[in-house]
Amino acid sequence: MARGNGKRYDETFKNETVKYIAENHKPIAQVARETGVNTNTLHGWIKKYGQQPEIKAIQTFPSPEAELRALQKEMLDLKEENEILKKAMNYFAKSPR
């Protein structure tokens, strides 16, 4: 099965789109319709470019509760990644060379 429509976007467009989403607090689905970019693609861009300092600086939370939820989600993600790394470390430590 063919994947995607084969469109290529330059780094500047990707970065500016992620910045636009962060500044305007718009739903990703709406931005996807506005730009013609697939929602899954936008999620990937946010994951890749959203941690850059200039984008992180503009990401503000509308309430302390929203910030708490975001931090709790990040903590759960980090715990999950840590567990995966532990399992991988155990697997490679046990496997014969």
Regions with pLDDT < 50 over 5+ consecutive residues? none
Shape: extended
Task: Supply the helix-strand structural class.
Answer: mainly alpha
Please state the CA-atom Rg, rounded to the nearest Å. 18 Å
Q: What portion of residues belong to β-strands?
A: under 5%
**Main sheet?**
none
Helix content: over 70%
Total E-strand runs: 0
Order of helices and strands: HHHHH
Number of domains: 2
* Total number of helices: 5
What integer is the average pLDDT? 82
Distance between the termini: 38 Å
Protein name: Transposase
InterPro entries: Homeodomain-like_sf, RD_transcriptional_regulator, Transposase_8
Organism: Neobacillus rhizosphaerae
